[in-house]
């Protein structure tokens, strides 16, 4: 049987099915998926806005694998995140905006420019703190080049809210708009909690709750705590301890819905005590 494929199609098929094709293979797969005539209808229908939530989700799945030290999963999660970059770059290429190589070159240029102590003439005999200060100086110059005049300009709207709060507060702190210590922040937390208690409507309560969360993020910054990581850890702890409640009830043939709050509180305290004892024994 004759092969009616074009030479370009033959090369494309060979690359797509090459298990060692690397980045060129992935880029070609993405191009084929987006082909308006022969591609996947779902992939063809997507745009930047529809794919952005998946990009955020994949970034969190990378963080989750790292937090769980699930190294076998991490390779796949990093691949999923890389695919998101390839997807966005392909859509940009179709519009004549830029391609994947432009993305890679832009990042390479940025890293070289931001590390003169590695790739330039600056001395690399600096403390990590001095390198962070230098980094911020370079980024400030980059923002100026982009005509970002306001102190808070350029803090991405699409960031998770807690992360964006911390970034906004860091920017403000650079120009002196900051509490001098955690004491003032904690006083403000007490004040905001009281205002939340006194809220007169659901809308007012939502506003005061937001203010309280914002100040909590500020406290995390002052204490050098990542609030996103802290909340993820708290979520994991809650999940773990509630699972122990379910296990304990199951041994009695019961479900949480069959239990009382008092009984579940007792089982929670028992799970908490076991964890503390195990932690003390390991130290």
UniProtKB/TrEMBL annotation:
GO terms for molecular function: ATP diphosphatase activity. GO terms for biological process: dATP catabolic process; dGTP catabolic process; dTTP catabolic process; dUTP catabolic process; response to stress; TTP catabolic process; UTP catabolic process. Coiled coil: none annotated. Gene3D superfamilies: MazG-like. It comes from the Bacteria. CDD domains: NTP-PPase_MazG_Cterm, NTP-PPase_MazG_Nterm. InterPro entries: MazG-like_dom (IPR004518), NTP-PPase_MazG-like_C (IPR048011), NTP-PPase_MazG-like_N (IPR048015), NTP_PyrPHydrolase_MazG (IPR011551). Residues 46-119, 185-241 form the NTP pyrophosphohydrolase MazG-like domain. It catalyses: ATP + H2O = AMP + diphosphate + H(+). Its EC number is 3.6.1.8. It is an enzyme of class 3 (hydrolase). Belongs to the nucleoside triphosphate pyrophosphohydrolase family. This is Nucleoside triphosphate pyrophosphohydrolase. It comes from Salipiger pallidus.
